[in-house]
Design brief:
Length: 246
C-alpha cells in the first residue's frame, strides 16, 4: 500500500527546506506545497532557480518565500531560522542542503574536510539548535544517505559527515522530545548525476530494486515523516531500493 499525499496534510504549516532550489531539494519543496504547506526556499548560490520555484509553488496555492544563506558561514546560519520565523512561524525544518564530492581518503585536503563538515553537519546542528529555541511543537527531518549507515571508502568526507548526521538525528530525537519530532531520510539513487559523463547504469548495478527512485516515492517519504504519528521519532528510513543491504 502506498502512502498517499493528501492535499491538506500540511495546510497552513510553514516549512523551511535548505538547498530547496535544485534537484532533490526542489522535489521536497514541491511535495510540501502539494500537501498544502507554505515553503521557505533556502538557497546558497541559486537565486534564479529559487525565484522560479517560488512562482511555481505560488501557482499551486500555498505561499513561498526565498531566503539566501551561505551555510559555510556559522553566523549567517544562526540567523536563518530567525529570519524564517519572522516571515512565518515554522512548523518544520528539512536539512537537505549538502555538498557531495567524490574524494578518496588520500585526496581529501583539510579544506575539503572542513567544507563538508561546515555545510553537511555544522549547519544542520546550528539550524536545529535555533529551530528548537523558537519552536514549541514541530518536526526536523535530516536528509541522509545510504552510505551513512554503511560507510565505504568513496566520497570520504561526505560519507563521514552523513554518518555523523545520522548519529545526531538520533541524539536530537532524545534531546528534543517530546515537543519536537526528529527523523532521518536516507537516500539512494534518486536523481542521475548532473555530470552527463557519469555511467548512470553502473550506479544502479548494486541496487536490488534495479532502478532509480520515482519522484512520487521521494515526495511520499518526506510527507510521511512530516505527518506521521508523533510516537515515531529517532528513526532513519532508507529510500534506496535496498542499496544499504548490499
Amino acid at each position: 500500500m502506498r502512502y498517499n499525499v493528501k492535499v491538506n496534510d500540511l495546510k497552513g504549516k510553514t516549512i523551511l527546506i535548505t538547498g530547496a532550489a535544485r534537484r532533490v531539494g526542489k522535489i521536497f519543496a514541491f511535495a510540501c506545497a502539494k500537501a498544502g504547506a507554505n515553503v521557505i526556499i533556502h538557497h546558497g548560490h541559486s537565486p534564479d532557480e529559487a525565484e522560479a520555484l517560488k512562482e511555481e509553488i505560488a501557482s499551486l496555492g500555498p505561499s513561498a518565500w526565498v531566503l539566501p544563506c551561505d551555510l559555510s558561514q556559522p553566523d549567517a546560519v544562526s540567523q536563518l531560522i530567525t529570519q524564517a520565523n519572522e516571515i512565518s512561524p515554522l512548523y518544520a525544518l528539512v536539512n537537505s542542503a549538502s555538498i557531495f564530492e567524490n574524494l578518496s581518503f588520500q585526496e581529501t585536503s583539510l579544506e575539503d574536510w572542513e567544507k563538508h563538515f561546515a555545510i553537511n553537519l555544522t549547519a544542520p546542528f546550528l539550524l536545529s539548535q535555533a529551530f528548537a529555541k523558537h519552536t514549541t511543537h514541530g518536526r526536523i527531518v535530516n536528509i541522509l544517505d545510504w552510505r551513512a549507515l554503511r560507510p565505504g571508502a568513496d566520497h570520504f568526507p561526505y560519507t563521514i559527515t552523513k554518518s555523523a548526521l545520522a548519529s545526531m538525528t538520533k541524539s536530537l530525537a532524545i534531546a528534543l522530545a517530546p515537543n519536537i519530532i526528529v527523523n532521518g531520510l536516507a537516500l539512494g539513487a534518486i536523481l542521475p548525476p548532473a555530470d552527463s559523463s557519469s555511467n548512470k547504469n553502473k550506479i544502479i548495478e548494486n541496487v536490488p530494486a534495479q532502478r532509480w527512485a520515482e519522484t512520487k516515492e521521494v515526495e511520499e517519504a518526506l510527507i510521511f515523516l512530516l505527518t506521521c504519528p508523533e510516537y515515531i521519532t529517532g528513526e532513519i528510513i532508507h529510500l534506496d531500493g535496498g542499496r544499504h543491504l548490499i
